[in-house]
Design a protein that fits this description.
single chain, 36% helix, 7-stranded mixed beta sheet, 20 helices, alpha/beta
């Protein structure tokens, strides 16, 4: 694999197409008309509007925000409007569970920017869009209600064992309803496009006929059989040429399996799609062949990643934390990556994991090379989207744009304070850390959300207890001293420290620890690294080589666990460029661009 420099003189002479990728928006209509007699929302004195929002307590226990991301999406679109970027891809989870109120809100927003700014939007489905392929009854128990208490909302009676507001607006929509409402955004052919096709029709590029494509695009023609049964499921994949020379390949990676008379969705992605949607691989090969034959630039996108996204540390993480921790079941296997690379995918954009990352797969001869670009979520840290500039048919510039300032970010903060007061007065143990309401901007807000989530959920559920205690409480000098000890001395030293910390502590949580830096790197990559103080980075660069030179033994001893942790940390710390960089498909090179 080469690292190549960018010839800016040549690039300046090349006509560029610029595409934005906004992933995992998880849009929830924060001012929805619920059409419910029992609940209109909670009146916000600040705006005079009824707010249909989830509680802060629920946000701080979720890997995504539910409320402020609505405003982040608008801010991102305004930014794109100012940059005059008109091709916009949404790689799944564009709604929060595909409810009518959220799909309709999304359509209204996209229609507005299509009309006002001439934007074209191209969507693919995520696991939070059609949660069930044919829809179903649904509900949420954690909306913010009167005086700060929780309010349950459901699509039918009997879903929750508490007073519940009933509205069909909260139910799941399936493929037919969601793609029907959003039909203008890639799911169906559009007269503006030069070419459009789906996996179940011939790729008639030379004799493309819009009317024929339109007739073929009905979802009754876009289904695949489930195993040996007569049952079929929809596949919303498509390929489109919105501008001359650019083919966007949208892969629907959702997989559903029958379970107790209903369809159960999966969040695993292509590890299962490679099995249950084999027809996609054959179709990808045909698309790649036709694109190459015509000199088209093929850019694929899906909700799910096509390769490992922890900088090569996933196997180490499985060994240390366990295969079911850290959402490691969602990591594509090497065999899965090989299949899609062999089918011809070269440049792929994905979401799903709410992280910023760049990955490269290449076989031993480099005859199959795949670049997987992880687009961060607008609803989590780091809040960002990516842009791609086509510099020529094989060279690209990719930039990650962070959302720092978001207009109206604090619109619901007084309502959260009301919730906090209600929890305090009722001595509810779910009370949360109110310092998040002092966040200075949206970047700070999502970082504080990550810190709170780390304390309340990630550490208790994913980390070996003794390892977490050590990483939160050992001093720099403790780490340095331990790094110079042999195995037996180090084990005794760490064991004594753990016992002392447990005896002294109580419920104290350090304001900042190496675990926080770990999550900044794991989720933010280069964007997270920028938030770690330079003296901390220098300290890690000095400490880690000493640690990983120790015997990297496998096992559950405290000593072994700490060594394994630093092996993982080192890989996350020294990652491929993921902020602003160029990719050259001829040389298979990637180069960081220093702004």
């Amino acid at each position: 694999m080469q690292l190549v420099s960018t010839n800016m003189t040549l690039l300046a002479q090349t006509t560029r197409t610029e595409i934005a990728f906004l992933s995992d928006i998880h849009l929830q209509d924060v001012h929805a008309d619920l059409n419910s007699a029992e609940f209109k929302g909670v009146l916000n004195p600040k705006t005079g509007k009824f707010a249909t929002i989830r509680t802060m307590q629920s946000q701080l226990n979720s890997t995504r925000l539910f409320n402020e991301n609505y405003f982040a999406f608008i801010s991102a679109l305004e930014d794109l409007k100012e940059r005059e970027i008109q091709l916009v891809v949404l790689p799944g989870d564009f709604t929060d569970d595909g409810q009518p109120m959220n799909v309709i809100a999304l359509k209204k927003i996209l229609d507005q920017y299509a009309e006002d700014a001439g934007m074209r939007f191209f969507l693919t489905t995520g696991n939070h869009d059609p949660v069930k392929p044919f829809g179903g009854i649904a509900g949420k128990r954690d909306f913010l209600g009167k005086e700060g208490a929780e309010q349950a909302i459901a699509g039918a009676e009997g879903l929750f064992d508490r007073q519940t507001a009933i509205t069909e607006q909260i139910n799941y929509w399936g493929y037919s309803d969601i793609t029907g409402a959003l039909r203008d955004f890639g799911f169906f052919p559009n007269e503006k496009d030069l070419f459009w096709s789906h996996p179940f029709q011939e790729l008639e590029v030379d004799n493309y006929d819009f009317q024929k494509a339109k007739e073929s695009s009905d979802f009754k023609n876009r289904v695949y059989p489930i195993g040996d049964s007569s049952q079929t499921l929809p596949d919303a994949s498509y390929v489109v040429e919105p501008v001359e020379g650019i083919w966007l390949l949208a892969l629907d990676g959702n997989v559903y399996t029958p379970s107790k008379n209903e369809w159960k969705g999966s969040s695993v992605g292509f590890n299962q799609a490679a099995i249950h949607k084999r027809h996609q691989l054959d179709w990808i090969e045909k698309v790649v062949h036709e694109a190459d034959k015509r000199g088209k630039t093929l850019i694929s996108f899906s909700h799910y990643p096509l390769m490992e996204f922890h900088d090569g540390a996933s196997d180490d993480m499985k060994s240390l934390f366990g295969e079911q921790k850290f959402q490691l079941a969602r990591v594509p296997s090497l065999e899965t990556t090989k299949l899609y690379a062999k089918a011809g995918i070269r440049l792929h954009f994905a979401g799903h994991m709410h992280i910023n990352d760049t990955g490269i797969y290449h076989d031993s001869t480099e005859s199959h090379v795949l670049f997987n670009i992880q687009v961060p979520s607008l609803a989590a840290f780091p809040p960002a989207y990516k842009t791609l500039k086509t510099l020529n048919t094989s060279s690209f510039e990719i930039e990650t744009i962070q959302l720092k300032e978001v207009e109206n970010m604090t619109e619901f903060f007084d309502l959260y304070r009301m919730e906090y007061d209600w929890l305090s007065q009722n001595q509810d143990p779910r009370i949360w850390d109110s310092t998040i309401l002092a966040s200075q901007d949206y970047l700070d807000y999502t970082r504080n959300h990550l810190i709170g989530l780390t304390r309340s959920r990630f550490i208790p559920s994913d980390w070996p207890e003794n390892l977490a205690v050590l990483l939160q409480n050992l001093t720099d000098s403790d780490f340095k001293a331990w790094s110079e000890m042999d195995k037996n001395e180090g084990e005794a030293f760490l064991y004594e420290k753990v016992e002392n910390f447990k005896a002294e502590m109580i419920d104290q949580v350090p304001a900042q620890s190496i675990i926080d830096d770990f999550y900044l790197l794991k989720n933010g990559d280069e964007l997270g690294k920028e938030l770690i103080a330079s003296e901390r980075l220098s300290y890690y660069e000095e400490l880690i080589p000493m640690v990983i030179s120790k015997d990297a033994i496998q096992g559950q001893s405290i000593n072994a666990q700490l060594i394994q942790f630093f092996v993982i940390f080192d890989k996350l710390l020294h990652s491929l460029p993921s902020d602003h960089f160029s990719i050259d498909l001829k040389s298979n090179g990637i180069q960081k661009i220093n702004d």
